[in-house]
Design a protein that fits this description.
single chain; mainly alpha; 77% helix
Length: 267
């Protein structure tokens, strides 16, 4: 087992991510990836493998958070299963292919991509930007194409796809509550496929690292997932008494700062 200080650090990190997820209804990839990258590097894992391990472990953690989120939204009838199912083939294809490509891409490029993507996400959250709705109805081919793009991008930044999915569903005239609920279902597809993909692509690369299965750090996954699940309920309670617009801006700034920190750390 890892040393007690790392276990405690995983607990704190999981509690932070879970609380923020419950508070704002957002995944924690923007927080997890840069911090886990630093943690794994300090543990002696090579810099080249640290970011892939952080991405894979973050996606594994999202399986738990996405499942809980789907249950909450589905119980309120806020998941448009037809659109989620239509996007699923593209999401699975895009997510799996991206994980296989990522292992052969220089980690510095992934760090740059992550920082730029999170800067876009932070701007979208800070200014609450949404595309204007389209008058054209969603088609199966369009859903598959959108799913492929969302799945491909999401596994390279370890986000559940919520930012992109909510924007796309809003563009297709899905109301915001149903868009958020449907994005949770989409996030589960991304998390499962991305986790499996990073496990497979990293089996030979991390075979000498203890407590890993491919690019998944098992102790980090288990501890963070447990802590985040417990802390999420407290975040949900607090969300009802605090202004979400202000909190979204705070989250956006934190995510951007951590992303830039990872970029500086890399170079």
């Amino acid at each position: 087992m890892p040393d007690i200080e790392w276990i405690l650090l995983y607990l704190v990190l999981g509690a932070l991510v879970g609380f923020m997820a419950g508070l704002l209804g957002l995944g924690g990839g923007g927080i997890l990836v840069p911090l886990l990258t630093s943690i794994f590097t300090y543990q002696g894992i090579s810099v080249d493998n640290a970011i892939h391990l952080a991405l894979g472990t973050s996606l594994a953690c999202m399986i738990i958070s996405s499942t809980a989120s789907i249950y909450a939204h589905a119980s309120r009838g806020a998941v448009v299963w037809q659109m989620a199912g239509g996007m699923a083939p593209g999401i699975i294809l895009g997510a799996f292919l991206s994980t296989q490509i990522a292992v052969n891409v220089n980690s510095a490029y992934i760090a740059i991509f992550f920082t730029l993507f999170m800067a876009f996400v932070a701007g979208q959250m800070f200014f609450n930007w949404q595309p204007k709705p389209s008058s054209k109805p969603a088609t199966l081919s369009g859903l598959i194409a959108a799913g492929t793009g969302i799945g491909s991008v999401s596994v390279l930044a370890a986000v559940g796809g919520g930012f992109l999915a909510v924007a796309y569903l809003g563009y297709k005239n899905v109301n915001i509550k149903s868009a958020i609920g449907t994005s949770a279902a989409i996030g589960l597809f991304i998390a499962i496929t991305g986790t499996v993909g990073y496990m497979i692509s990293g089996l030979l690369v991390t075979s000498s690292n203890p407590y890993t299965i491919g690019f998944i750090n098992v102790p980090a996954f288990l501890i963070i997932a447990l802590a985040s699940t417990i802390a999420a309920s407290y975040g949900v309670r607090c969300s009802h008494g605090l202004p979400k617009a202000c909190l979204r801006k705070i989250f956006a700034v934190i995510a951007l700062i951590l992303s830039i920190k990872m970029l500086i750390f890399w170079f």
